[in-house]
Amino acid sequence: MIWQIIILIVLIILTVGAAIYAVVAKNLLYAVVSTGLISLGLSMFFFILQAPDVALTEAAIGVALTTIIFIITIRNTTKYEDVSDKKKSIERRKND
Amino acid sequence: MDQLLTISFYGTAIALIAVGLYAVLAKKNLLKIVIGLSIIDGGLHLLFVAIGYVKGGTAPIFSPEITSNDVMVDPVPQALVLTAIVIGFAVTAVALSLVIRLYRHHNTASIDQIKNLKW
Amino acid sequence: MIKKVLVIALIAVIGFSLMNVMLQIPFGEKRETVGDYYLQKSPQELKVANSVTAIVVSFRGFDTLGEVTVLFLAAMSLASIMYRRKRKGDIEIRAKKPSSRILQVGAQIIFPMVVVLGAYVFIHGHLTPGGGFQGGAIIATASLLMLITYRKFKVNHNTITWIESIAGIVFVGIGMTGLLKGLTFLQNFLELGELNSLLSGGIIGIIYVAVGFKVAAELTGVIDTVLLNNRPDNNDNN
Amino acid sequence: MVISPVHYIALPLMAAFLIPLFGKINKELVRIIPGLVLLYLSYASIVMMNQVLSGSTIVEIIGGWTPPWGINLVFSPFSGFLVSMMTILGFLIWVYTYNFKPEVDFSQTTKFYTLFMMVITGAVGIVLTGDIFNLFVFLEITAISSYALTAFYRERDGAEASFKYILIGSFASFFILLAIVILYSQVGTLNMADIAQKMPGVNPYIKGVVLILFFVGFGIEAELFPLNGWAPDVYTQAPGPIAAIFSGMVVKAGVYALIRVIFTMFDVPEVLNLLLIMGLITMVIAEVIAVRQERIKRMLAYSSIGQMGLVVVAFSIGTKEAVFAAIFLMFNHAVIKGLLFLSATYLVYNSKEKKISEMNGLGKLMPYTSFMFALGAIAIVGLPPFAGFWSKLYILIAAADVNYIAVIAIILIISVIEIVYYFRVVHKIYFGKVTPNIDIKIPTLNAKFTLLVLGLTIVVIGVYPDLITGIIERAADDLLDKQNYIQTVLSLR
Q: Chain C interface, mutation test: which of B2, B104, B106, B114, most C Cβ atoms within 10 Å?
């Protein structure tokens, strides 16, 4: 029983934490990977709630395909949320 | 204990919806907005499955060992969520293709700078 | 800054009222729903072990037809939105750099295994968790692996179109066959077989296999369309 | 094969899956097949409408599972009327689009015609289905096709409008999905008739929340204020015929869903007051904004929103006469706004900005198209003897019956505003000075045919409104008779 509660709490922290990080992260690539983590957490939630079908779908579509499409989009656009971040990053690279 | 479980499942779902809403309403980056939409979607799906859960129930799959349906969770929300997940993916994919096209056209992904139309 | 505070306040109000509503719905309680009927009928009348599959394909099969259409439309919309005229000197490149030898060998080994896994998932959709959507998604992941590993790997669009169309027609055609036989749309007209055996459930198995192929083709098409468009275009500002 | 409501969904889907294959045989087939499908469906509508008007509602069960367990399609006088209107209008618009932009590539043409057909299928599905989650699925079919069609032209800002649409449309689907979740936990069923039957037992607090969620969700699709921010841009950026489809079908389907939910599923008459207020605000704001518009399509879009506000106002009065007038207006609006969008599209065919000032003096250069536009403009503001007059008159009579004096006053003021901005355009077309070296495009023959049919409909209905009022009366009766709906669907059990 106690283990179940601990697992549940860890899952909640993982999912909600990943969601918050996905929103605040400056680098969109991190944000997207974090979105994939949410799906992973959700998939485990579905498993706990006795919904293996949904868990499998979320794992296949949410974790794999959505993340991949996001990553491809980022590759075709930009990985910085703000233009200013991009400039900073270029400057940093120059200084190194 | 029951209260705790209620809060933990419903609460997680609502927390996800709230975080996603924040991303959609407050963020300027198109990709962040799409991420927000998919987070809200996830929260809604969790809410849906949680409503179908029955305490002590098993997954709604019959096997030679499990033949009676007394202790099964409600399968309908699960079937509906399957549909909803696929639809959510389709919408996300279309939204992302629009992001790519907007980026090509305007060379930016921030809605502050994409303002040919009124927002 | 003020906007952010306002947004947070709004979200707090929404979240609080939503929680308030949800607390009125007890968690984990047994309710009287149509689900009970489905749970009763799916092993007895449909001979399908997985009730979720029974609902997705038979009881609410019309939704699934709609869902497959949504994916089909999404693939088509994506291609329409990302469309650009072919020009001279266009090279179809998906991966920017050639991948390492290890990845190439690994992909060759893993690819058939993942495809078989996907096929297994949708063939056994009426017995175990999983089904057409999950299996199709798994196969699409396998083709993605090939696409990013091999620079020259090409998805044959002709094949995709054929698979997609035929699978779609099988789905609608089975539905129409029911109608032509004097039953209703999507009604079962085959032998039902034994519960928990592979050939059970009548049309459910066939439909789920068709859905599996269709979803795999569509998702592969989606990924391929998005991947292909990495040609930088500064002169395409029309 | 016996004609059944399933054909409305199954045949377009089959055609959509087949079109890529047919494209390999003959490139012309991808354009012809959607038209053939729509032609057959128009024929089926007429046959089934006759059947329904002489007999009783057709309820088609799917998968062999009777309601409330399976999904069912309901072809009642009300839904049947809307479906017939949509399919016939869809066929006419297909005729119009046939040679619309011949320079578009083959692969894009294929997609355009498939998406075109699927938008109509989705809207028809929303109207036909008797299951709330199925309605959601059809809503998504309509929405995704609309997103793609809005962004169809690369040279316009379609992508931006489409992204806006996707953002607001996603919110609509979130609200509807959430409402379905909560509702399912209370009634344990998804069939609309069964929900309506079980509704009195639901906790009133939750009932209110669900109703508001549905209201917001479908309100977005029905372009109610303040949820209509997407509409003007989408109408402006989408290809012309598609704008006609949006105003003639997609929005009508949204209104239908809203009305079906409020009138059939819920037993909360108080919500009609809310609906009335929202409708009035929508109408006033949209029409006032329309006056200031410089782009023709944007003006028509705001006018469309205003007219939908009027439809909602008429529905929310709630009496039989008012519902009758509302359905009549829905029909008139679909036809007239279709005519306006389709003729305006050719009037500003080659212009990039689509400004009203660019239409100056076209009355001499394009007499046919200009005449059709003027006809539509006169009809939509409600001048006799055209179709728009009757629906507006019936709404006013219905409002007078229940002593809604303020509503009557507002509608009359709005009509004056409409006259102002429509006649400004007509004046410019006929008496404006022609812009030098204007590049005009004379409509193709098939486009002229569509305009002629729509124009004739307006005139004929205007002179003999009795041709259609009988059917609409049946439709209004059907919508208000909730018990009959529940019984017809659930008696199959």
A: B104
